[in-house]
Amino acid sequence: MSKEEKGGLNGVVKTFRNLPGFWRASLNPWLIRVRNHPERLAFVLHRVTGAIILFYLLLHILVTDVPAYHHSWSSWQSLMASFNNPANHIGEFIVAGCVFYHGLNGIRLLLTEFFGVCIGKPERPKPPYIPPTAKSCQRKLLYAVFILAAIFWVLSGLIIFGVWG
Amino acid sequence: MALSDLKAATKVPPKEVTIRIRRYSPTTGKTWWQEYKIKPHRGMTVLDALLEIKAKIDHTIVMRYSCRMGVCGSCGMIINGMPRLACQTQIAEVATENNPVITLEPLYNFPVLRDLLTDFTNFFEKHRSVKPYLLRNDEAEREEPYDQYIMSPEEYLDIYEYSLCISCGLCYAACPVAAADPEYLGPQALAYAARYVLDVRDEKPEIRLKIVDTEHGCHRCHYAGSCSMVCPKIVDPAQAIQRLRHILYKWKLGMWRKKTARTASAPKVWKPRKPLPPEVKPVRPDIDYEAIEKEPVTIEVDGIKITLRHLIPTKADKMFGEERKRAEAQSS
Amino acid sequence: MGNASRLAIWQYITAIILIAVLTGHLIERFPPVTHQSYEQSLSPSTFYSRLKGAWGIGLLLLAYVALFHGLNGIRGMLYEWLPGRRREKVWDALFWILFIIFASIATYTVIALPAPTLPK
Questions:
Q1: Which CATH class is domain B8-118?
Q2: Chain B residue with the nearest C-alpha to that of A115
Q3: Number of domains within chain C
Q4: Least enclosed by CB within 10 Å: which of A155, A156, A162, B225?
Q5: Looking at the domain assignment, is residue C78 inside a domain?
């Protein structure tokens, strides 16, 4: 860190820090323009959905504690009644989408990062020079994650907005 | 994939391209965009265009380059938003007749010294920090090896891809984690660590696994895969880091033991040489092959007869000067 | 040096537990399985029987595991966003403090939940 701030060539030359920064890297999947690269989008979505879910989880734990905290169920029922409005349903719908995407992509990341499978095998580079990461089955898994998460999201929307069930 | 379009060199580039360069002056500390117009020819690379601008329009542009053929890894820069090697990028690949603008920026995540020139000091320090060399139990033997390490073709192929790295820094520039965290080891250093951890000739993987097992080591990778997508040598650092991490977890849980190469040494005492098998007998015993070989061969070219000398060397062939002349006279 | 993988391994172990327990938790509110409407599945009696039964331990485990997984994920992001030795100690402390506070709230909920007196 200190070296970076002092600048290159042992601090002799004043350098310009060309870092895009945390927010641009975490929120913009098109920070570098590479064609056919859904993993970067998956990375950004995983971060954003994770943050939303954590925010919801903390609220969820606090809300669930209400009847135990007040030692009565009347506060719980009034709270649930106040939650029954469209704005809250939309929020719930967004959280449901986040959970489905984060969970399904999490399975893919578990397989690749923790178990070290689905990442392809090293090979001799040959035309058309596509890296094994882009050819391996994790890419197919990723497309499956996008499709399944979308299907589950639509189903959860049907339940949340009272169309089904 | 820096080489995504293999037929780019056969395409015709636009008649005139505008090259926008993000420039930086260390004396004033200012950055600005500057535009140059050039007329490219077929097969012209971005580096050629930069050199033409430097030669004919503005000699104050600063960039790093050396081999001009994608081997040294010096000319990495952001070309139209993607980290690429300028020498391996055809103008026809990045500019079209409808959009003849090429935007050049210095590599992201590196301190910029001037214009397109970036400072690789930290990058190489991180590379050195993972000990990118073979570690052996016997250090004296490592420095002056007297044996050979046995490595099968499969074991070689396992690390061959990672050993192609030219340290151009494109993966580091593409990495979303390195974009925020300057202490992160980066895809290049981690891929190199994986390359030596997986190498059967290396005997001390624990040292390297401890180096990458930090908060700014391999756990910060989130498999965005951008490093592999921009690598000009198809090194695939993303795959290497996942394999390294998998090994690290297995090692931490006591489930991984490294397979190391045996050494193949030359025998201390030379055994007597095996005698050669007896010579093969002539196919037809009625022909004297030696006599045929001694016969001069005469061929006719355009009516002129040329006599070729016999193929078995005579005594005269082994002599020189006066001695040879005398021997030749005697034989004739 | 060399101990970061402890938390990282737990991040993956909690993820594996989450997949199983969270699926169960989501099915709890899936009308075709519970034969209750979406709103009905939050009634005090259902809620009480869910938390006080054997599944209550599963839900408590879900709370711990999800808290660890989520807060550790945010801790990793803070390491990236604002690195530095002193700051990193603050992030570690913040992680454990938040984890203990919210884990104890969740435990209290399961232990001290009063029986619903209202009719269904």
A1: alpha beta
A2: B246
A3: 1
A4: A162
A5: yes
